[in-house]
Structures
1.
Amino acid sequence: MLRRRLNRLCGGDEKRVDSRTIYVGHRQCPPTEAFIPPKFCDNRIVSSKYTVWNFLPKNLFEQFRRIANFYFLIIFLVQVIVDTPTSPVTSGLPLFFVITVTAIKQGYEDWLRHKADKEVNKYPVMVLENGRRVPKESEKIKVGDVVEVKEDETFPCDLILLQSSRDDDTCFVTTASLDGESNHKTHYTVPDTDKDLESLSATIECEQPQPDLYKFNGRMHIYKSDQEPFVRSLGPENLLLKGATLKNTEKICGVAVYTGMETKMALNYQGKSQKRSAVEKSINGFLLVYLCILISKALVCTALKYWWQSKEGQDEPWYNHKTQKERDTNRFLKMFTDFLSFMVLFNFIIPVSMYVTVEMQKFLGSFFITWDKDFFDPEIQEGALVNTSDLNEELGQVEYVFTDKTGTLTQNNMEFISCCIDGFQYKNHDSCSELDGFCVTDGPVSKLQQKAGREKEELFLRALCLCHTVQVKEPGPDEQTEVDGLDHPLTQPQEQRGFIASSPDEVALVKGAMKYGFTFLGLESRTMKIKNRQNDIESYELLHVLNFDPVRRRMSVIVRNKKGETLLFCKGADSSIFPRVKQEEVECIRTHVERNATDGYRTLCVAYKQLSAEEFAETEAQLQEARLALQDRDEKLTAVYNLVETDMSLIGATAVEDRLQEEAAETMEALQGAGMKVWVLTGDKMETAKSTCYACRLFQRGTELLELTVRTLEDGRCGREERLHELLLDYHKKAVQDAPPVKPGVTRGWATANQEYGFIIDGATLSLVLNPTDASASRYKNLFLQICQNCCAVLCCRMAPLQKAQIVKMVKNSKGSPITLSIGDGANDVSMILEAHVGIGIKGKEGRQAVRNSDYAIPKVKHLKKLLLAHGHLYYVRIAHLVQYFFYKNLCFILPQFLYQFFCGYSQQPLYDAAYLTMYNICFTSMPILAFSLLEQHICIEVLMDNAALYREIAKNAMLRWWPFLSWTIQGVFQGLMFFFGVRFLFSNPALQDNGQVFGNWSYGTIVFTVLVFTVTLKLALDTRHWTWINHFVIWGSLAFYVFFSFFWGGIIWPFLKQQRLYFVFANMLSSVSAWLVIILLILLSLLPDILLLIFRKPKSHARQLSEDSLFHADRRLLRSHRYPTST
Amino acid sequence: MMASSYNAKEEDGHHSGAVGPGGAGVIKSKKPDNTAFKQQRLPAWQPILTAGTVLPAFFVIGLIFIPIGIGLFVTSNNIKEFEIDYTGVEESSPCYVCSFNYTWNNTTPCQCSIPFSLDQPFESNVFMYYGLSNFYQNHRRYVKSRDDSQLNGDKSSLLNPSKECEPYRSSQGSPIAPCGAIANSLFNDTLELFYNFPNGTSIPIPLVKKGIAWWTDKHVKFRNPGGNNNNLTATFAGTAKPVNWRKPVFELDPSDPDNNGFVNEDFIVWMRTAALPTFRKLYRIIQKKKDNMMPTLPRGNYTLNVTYNYPVRSFEGRKRMILSTISWMGGKNPFLGIAYITVGSVCFFLGVVLLFIHHKYGSRNNNADIPN
């Protein structure tokens, strides 16, 4: 972090200019100009935080910045400075342990980073220097160096491609490690550069480093000795990113433009914002309570001490004189140090080890998610991924689920379903998609019913074949038929080929065209070849691709056919195409488009336009100009695009089916059953999204839909704002005021008496609601929120990525601050994934950005069910129990110590030996709770999965609210009282051995401590519902360890101890029958309320229903195993 | 590989992205292992506590605890204990003069004798305790004021006691042995017991002073410096006696070298600090007569002779002499017996209540017993 900031500071002077100038090969050009080598950072990657020298101070500083660690440090220092009852070791040792473990962990992680850095930095590369190839280490690359990269090597820094070994001046690159897209991307050399790099004299002017992987603007000035320097524009297609790998190309040469920490990759891997879980807030609340208890205990004891001392003869009896120093101390100073001493004596009530245990629990617990084989998807050969373990328990607290539609609810696996040409619907009759969702064509080439003119048909199919950015995957020797969607029989089986594209829609369309007889053969040196129905090869020269972007929602190509005609094909969303075509053509197609959209298909409209030579020349000039612009290039390009894409004629529309993800509907139903509100946020059309919602059973037949879209707003005659206001009030009345208050616990589906509402809003209206022109902003927002909260499902369509985040933020900050979860798979979901409490990425087809920015990543949406209902539920219960238990066990640990003060003249005499004080939380009672918090399944996973309603029982932080906290505290107090007074009554006659010998104060403490350790451990045993061998081992093991340790500790005169307080105390205690009897009695008595609670609580709750369900479940499992005998 | 190396978060968050099996960029198949542990399917015993399962336990506990409690109660009741306060607060008390005239530096010890009578004979071994009240042996300043390595015979600690012993660390320049407040305030009353025959003659009752301290304390924890050197006077040369003692440590029991110096049992007993401000400590044992069937202490009149050295009135303390027999459970203490009977009865009662509930509502709930 600091280093990066420093780097930025170093680069400060160049920061002021918006661009940097790079001298290719460090050759000054033109040679006459004075050459000042600009300074750039070197190609060293530094991801590590520490060096050997600053590790200790920096790490310690960072650790003590945490409030808890700092508190314990203070306690430790107080113990060192002030004369306190317990030795500094008792709190110093645990603190030291915690600090050391954390430091080791962080040091190890940093060492890994160092190693990775070193591997990257020392990677050998070839640099061309004065015509020679010089091997260098990667970190020595400077900006301006010409670097040679061979096939399958990764690029050591961001390079501008100058030369490729391929004939067509391209190279192929895969960016799998950057964004997960495994397709080969084509990059182009800078046009018109010399083949001879040695004599190339050029400068590159490009923008300052920025993290966007897909944006790059630059200009290359090429100087030739005999002519004027000329300029070529550089775009992302010329830039090879560090981290990407060269494929299918023997070697390339490129000039380094961004190095080291300024590469796009390094800029992208910066830290994410830290999310904190709600449980941590509860912990802090409880801590505060315990801090108050601690301080009040110390205050009470201090006050009582001075009251007691004021009585005659008590303060300083003849047998117990103070030292001279004590007498001389100022009375108030003494009071203060007494207060501090009591604080130190009771400080164990706030346990250091809780933080360690919670951290360990989270860290280790998160492995169960990655290990879960149910999350393994055979298709992508990956399981779940945990990016942060801080939020495990938050998975059990989700109230709002915001889900993306495409790729999340739907598979993003497109299938061409039908098309509409010139107003006639063409449908593949033989496809039986209803049954298994897979299209099977029976004939080699499906004949289209001859409805539209043949010309039109072929034009449409050509448009489909030409208007795209699909690549043909050259079938290598090893990858023959691995491409999906190609397993059905084709006319020419020898031409089985795969298509790769960034958007699956395009692949579906190209495949659709192939089904109807037009096969796209590929793009070779800017010539597109297609095979038409007559098996003739047609070739088109590709002149321009007007790229797709989500704002324009369309793309175009400009091609020239053999006859020399220049054609523009455009395809895009209906809303973006219709305004740009002749209006008379629209109407007949619009109905088809809308019907298809209602059926849940994704529709695209196709249009074309013939460009005259003048038009084309003009367009080309404009494009060229825009492409050379260094600033606002995108805006300029868009403007040109918009200019060209007008007055087109509409040819037809396509309908592509995006099938639902497996079990998406069941998952959504389960989430709703678990009391979560599901909101669908999509950029898609309303009709498509609505049908998906119906298919996912988010909306049901009886659901009344409240629509708030541009269409409903324009129905009325008055202005949009008034109409919006009117509608909001109307819906509010319907959904909020008239509806009976929603009772928690009433599962949807059984509560049929209530009318259910679904809410639909679109992006334009949403921005109207959120940012209205007049001052009633918050009112609209509130109304909107209230309506949404009373609806069973909300659909927000036509959302921009930022609006998704806005919605999440709005709900997150609403009353009661509900826990939100966002799930999505694409780059457009990143903002909402980052915004929500828990962000989940789907390892889908739209690259890796969502996964990289998520907290958890799962392969399919169906895995969400188990992640939340089983893992989340269990994690929450575990950590809640862990926290409560920790506070409880330390309360009943310290309470006897507090009570003892009343019997020892408030002298801060500890009841327990220092070893016990230190070891209690570290050794004797830590392992069972850790094992419990990792393994406990109070309800087994299958039952949790089958009964979504169980999730409601822990909603709203149910186990960490004040009431359960109070009950645990009362238990702790009760047990503490039992321990102390039970032994107190026993010690009314300290002659407890059968030889008449008496026990002293350390025996007293040891008996109390023994009862304490056993009770606390057995209480956990009582709470354990799931006894694996690990639980057995750890619970009985730690009890055995306590006994063993006590023998050992008391069995030797320890030379390093000042006082041998416990020498044979434990053994003598065990030789006394009375001690045995009192220990047994007190353990039983302390646990009695617990046992009773357990018994009486059970029948009230779901125990019965549960076991019935589990019986059903067993049956069902049996059935299932019959059905799929081979599934494992 | 490169991607994964930057997965680590900037803060001290976990590195599970690269550490866990799901770390990005690993080429090998990432199918999780299908082990019971990793799938959270370890075979597990899942007990469900219900009225039905706990019911027998309550009865069993009740049935075990009540007899134990009765046994304890009876045992405790059978223990004979006699207690006499000889502080001398009341003017009628024989020790009033001694306690009233007490000064630290009077050279002649003050004697007083208290007659008492035992209504019942004390069988078997009788243990003689002294008890102190309102004496805070568990005060922190007091508890820590000792040097265990000095008491363990460490030569260097003998001459240079621990700082914890302040202000009882040195007297007139020479180190105190044994140092510290506990040792300094050693209980130094001498108690003697006489049996008064009805004919007026009285015989002293033999008091055994061995076996009153823990064996390990006497033999391991406490040792005289110089080991078995009989010449304790020379060993302790250069040390001073505790300020409140009348005689140095090597004269605690001149008659028995094994009971002298630091290993003196009275001293060891005193050094084991009591848990509560009212406590008793074992003083002497009256052993059962071996030859005849006579009780150890027959019914009759006795006299307690006290050499009154220990002042307690300054802090409103009390001194007692206790005679007690001992059973397998130790001294007389009705608490355990009562507690056991109570808990046993409560458990039994709960068992009955639960049985009633179970019987009444059980038919509706019987599914609850089926563990899932």
2.
Amino acid sequence: MAHEAPFQLLHSELIHYICKSADSTDSENGRSVTKLENMGFRVGQGLIERLTKDTARFKDELDVMKFICKDFWTCVFKKQIDNLRTNHQGIYVLQDNKFLLLCHLSAGKQYLEHAPKYLAFTCGLVRGALSNMGVKSIVTAEVSVMPACKFQVMIQKV
Amino acid sequence: MSRQSNRTTDSKKMNSELFTLTYGALVSQLCKDYENDEEVNKQLDKMGYNIGVRLIEDFLARSSVGRCQDFRETADVIAKVAFKMYLGVTPSVTNWSPAGDEFSLILENNPLADFVELPDNHNTLVYSNLLCGALRGALEMVQMAVDVKFAQDTLRGDSVTEIRMKFIKRIEENLPAGDE
């Protein structure tokens, strides 16, 4: 079953809708990005519940992050995270060299200024998924050369 | 081994849930932004149209179906190939009009509406209107102008979900004047 296309296209339409009424000032842009992130958060929460209902309890934070990098990423983006790095003090960097939602945007540096809009929903998705696994976090993303990108997860100690 | 195969089937299902959940978030946002259901319906139709005109390319690339000879064939391809491929369900094709230009797609369950309940103040919301726009957009790209609407909706209390599709006309390919 070819699943990526509908979600990719829906995601694009979502971004187009949320961002169209905003002009391109920084604050408006920021608002759009926040809206997208919040939507992703709710979807991530719902999705992780379904995905983990039969999995065993996670041993620790690293186990949770590995699950996100492997099972969660595969389910949502059809591949695993290519590289996971951590400082073992609550900061994780997830690298995806061929991020599904950026692939159709460009291969290189063109349209770089639009990339944050295309990453916001996914940041929320990860934050929502972690939240329902009992992990509070802040998730940001950065891109320098598409379609590769890095997601930064900062665990918040409650 | 059995755990692994569980994973694969689960991940396929999960993926349609990703779409369903994202779609739900979108409809919620639209309901917040627009005062009335009619506006939301229009937006969903427009977005669906935008998705349809691009999805058709993906569909044609992946499926290898050739040009359909008539509307009946189109109906079959929509139900048995497209719906199955993208939504994981196969609606049945019924209720053909005598002229053969109108038919219904009957869905026992609508994957877009999994886990969804319409609150009382949204009686005229056509929750899955994205589908109508998408079908219209996709078919327009293959030179068919159609009218698509929901005739029945399980979310509104009907027993099945029925999409009614009507063939309007064939769209002639218009080449810009001045091209050879």
